[in-house]
Design brief:
- The chain is α+β, with helices and mostly antiparallel strands.
- It folds into 3 domains: about 140 residues, 3-Layer(aba) Sandwich (Creatine Amidinohydrolase, Chain A, domain 1); about 140 residues, 3-Layer(aba) Sandwich (Creatine Amidinohydrolase, Chain A, domain 1), CATH 3.40.350; about 280 residues, Alpha-Beta Complex (Creatine Amidinohydrolase).
- About 35% of the residues lie in helices and about 20% in strands.
- It contains 18 helices and 28 strands.
- The strands form 9 sheets. The chain has a 6-stranded mixed β-sheet with strand order 4-3-2-1-5-6, sandwiched between helices. A 4-stranded mixed β-sheet has the order 8-10-11-12. A 4-stranded antiparallel β-sheet has the order 21-28-27-24.
- A hairpin with an 8-residue loop joins strand 22 and strand 23.
- One of its GO terms (molecular function) is metal ion binding.
- This is M24 family metallopeptidase.
- Keywords: Hydrolase, Metal-binding.
- Pfam families: Creatinase_N (PF01321), Creatinase_N_2 (PF16189), Peptidase_M24 (PF00557), Peptidase_M24_C (PF16188).
- It comes from Sphingobacterium humi.
Length: about 600
């Protein structure tokens, strides 16, 4: 079925159900960023494959609302589908709700499938439309009837991690969550988000590409805890281990019945991480406490075991990247390399490392103008052939049993231009400024974001994405609750958090530059004036120096770069052969 035909079928379903406008979010019942195939509704409906967007359909208009990361991609993928790109002004804001308010009249109906919309999204739509007399129905599923070959729920087995890997037992994590609930005087809690569930139960799976999670829900109160998961995904040993930790196991689909039968006085639900269908099923007699999942905050602060494992994963990742960039440099002149082929080659180098499980997201290998698309993914149609000239941006990561990595590097394949050097050096300067900043306890992510952007602002340059995101421990590469971006999000940077620092600069149609390391926030000083923190850089991979314009760097930036590259050589050389060691020694020479 062509996209235009799918759109016609949905519109027919809207007529039959009396729906004047239909919203399709990019989500699933767990409000995941990355989706199992069954819930890739936007891709199936419109052809757009980006990880963030919302479709809105009326009888005379169909649009995709998405942010600047995807403007070029969406324009290309929506051509001929019947859908138009609507450019978001503010990333993550439900601007389509305002559009609907201006398009619809009192008495008309807006529908969406509550299994696919977060409570926060549903509330944003309701808050905008209900005061105008526009009805909102969050229980309208128009896709199931027309999506005839819809994939089933993933059936891959799940497994448990031992405490030697995680550093904290499931029983202890449940105790910590119950303590948080008791402090808030909350009697029960329902967890939908997959990475929270994975962290709490020390469980991993393969239900979502690149994210080692398993589909499930978790209910707990002071006395009991139940995991709702598809039958057959856990073996008897795992079920027994969970039972010993105080966790019973029930079929996945029973979660929706269980939430209707909650009998506690109140229940905590995270509005950003719970779907509207679950929220709306809570009995009227039960008070819903809307708050962030306690596990989301606990999970973000890594323990000493997780940090030690992560440092080991970083070394393995650095070895793989060193081998990759050496291979790339030696083979680019052949004219046989492409964006897709080098992504496969890089995955092969990672797969050769001990305890490699998967990549942590689809590799972004952007050559020349493709590097200016922050979330670019090469396709058969766009796949560019590399030449011995121009800039190549590679943003990639790995999932290892002992950690998750995410790194971006830019290399010149030849014929370096002065403009490229200036832009590269300013981005590098931003990475260094963010990585070396000292800040008082309680600092928020938007303050780190500003410190990182300053070298670019000073030269009247900027970038449209955030500066950093949290990273999980052998979990999702994008992890909350903290983030380094311009939004005034009131979440402090805490000791033990792992976050990316990744400023960039993009010249559409020419090239893109982004230099990304992961850092660990730690306390360095306590005195009369308070507690102060800084960052430990975790990522171990050389930063190219042939693109650096030293005249734009202060001595402190040059010292940091030289010391960092020397540290990279020290960390990786014992795991490299003679030729690789010699190559890396040349790449890490002081400037």
């Amino acid at each position: 079925m062509k996209y235009i035909e799918k759109l016609a079928s949905i519109r027919q379903g809207m007529k039959e159900k009396g729906v004047d406008a239909y919203i399709i979010p990019s989500s699933d019942p767990h409000i995941s960023e990355y989706l199992p195939d069954r819930f890739k509704c936007i891709a199936w409906t419109s052809g757009f494959t980006g990880s963030a967007g919302t479709l809105v359909i009326t009888q005379d208009f169909a649009g995709l609302w998405t942010d600047s990361r995807y403007f070029v991609q969406a324009t290309e993928q929506l051509a001929g589908t019947g859908f138009e790109l609507v450019k978001l002004q503010v990333q993550g804001k439900a601007e389509y709700a305002t559009w609907l308010a201006n398009q619809l009249s009192k008495g008309q109906v807006v529908g969406f499938d509550g299994n696919l919309a977060a409570v926060a999204v549903a509330q944003a739509v309701q808050d905008e439309l209900l005061p105008l007399g526009i009805q909102v129905d969050g229980h309208v599923d128009l896709l199931s009837a027309v999506w005839q070959d819809r994939p089933a729920l993933p059936a891959a087995p799940a497994y448990l991690l031992d405490v030697e890997t995680t550093g904290q037992s499931t029983a202890d994590k449940l105790a910590a969550i119950r303590a948080k609930l008791a402090a808030k005087r909350v009697q029960s809690h329902f967890v939908s988000s997959l990475d929270d569930l994975a962290w709490i139960l020390n469980i991993r799976g393969n239900d979502v590409k690149c994210n080692p999670v398993v589909l499930g829900f978790l209910y707990l109160d002071a006395e009991q805890c139940t995991l709702y998961i598809q039958s057959g995904k856990l073996d008897e040993a795992a079920i027994s281990s969970l039972k010993a930790a105080g966790v019973s196991v029930a079929p996945y689909e029973e979660a929706f019945t269980a939430i209707r039968n909650v009998a506690t006085a109140n229940i905590l639900l995270d509005p950003k991480r719970t779907c509207f269908a679950i929220f709306d099923a809570v009995p009227d007699a039960v008070t819903i406490v809307e708050d962030i999942n306690p596990s989301t905050q606990l999970k973000a602060v890594k323990n000493k075991t997780e940090l030690a494992h992560t440092r080991n994963a970083m070394r393995k990742d650095g070895v793989a990247l060193t081998k990759f960039f050496k291979w790339l440099e030696e083979n680019v002149a052949s004219g046989t390399l492409s964006e897709m082929s080098i992504a496969d080659k890089l995955q092969g180098f990672r797969a050769a490392q001990e305890d490699f499980v998967d990549i942590s997201f689809d590799t972004i290998a952007g050559y020349l103008e493709h590097g200016a698309l922050p979330h670019y993914k090469a396709t058969e149609e766009s796949n560019a052939t590399l030449k011995a000239s121009g800039l190549l941006l590679v943003d990639s990561g790995g999932q290892y049993r002992d950690g998750t990595t995410d790194i971006t590097r830019v290399v010149s394949l030849g014929n370096i231009k002065a403009e490229e050097q200036v832009d590269y050096t300013l981005v590098l300067k931003g990475t260094i400024e963010g990585s070396t900043t000292v800040f008082p306890k309680g600092t928020r992510g938007y303050q780190i974001d500003a410190m990182t952007r300053r070298p670019l602002w000073d030269m009247f340059r900027n970038y449209g994405h955030g500066t950093g995101h949290g990273v999980g421990f052998f979990l999702n590469v994008h992890e909350g609750p903290h983030v380094f971006n311009p939004s005034a999000i009131d979440i402090p940077v805490e000791e033990g958090m792992i976050t990316s620092i990744e400023p960039g600069l993009y010249r559409e149609g020419k090239y893109g530059i982004r230099i990304e390391n992961l850092v660990h926030s730690k306390t360095i000083e306590k005195n009369y004036f308070g507690e102060f923190m800084d960052f430990e850089t975790l990522t171990i991979c050389y930063i190219a120096t042939d693109l650096v314009d030293k005249s734009l760097l202060d001595a402190k930036h040059i010292d940091w770069l030289n010391n960092y590259n020397a540290w990279v050589f020290e960390q990786l050389s014992p795991s490299l052969d003679e030729a690789e060691t010699a190559w890396l020694a040349e790449k890490t020479k002081a400037i």
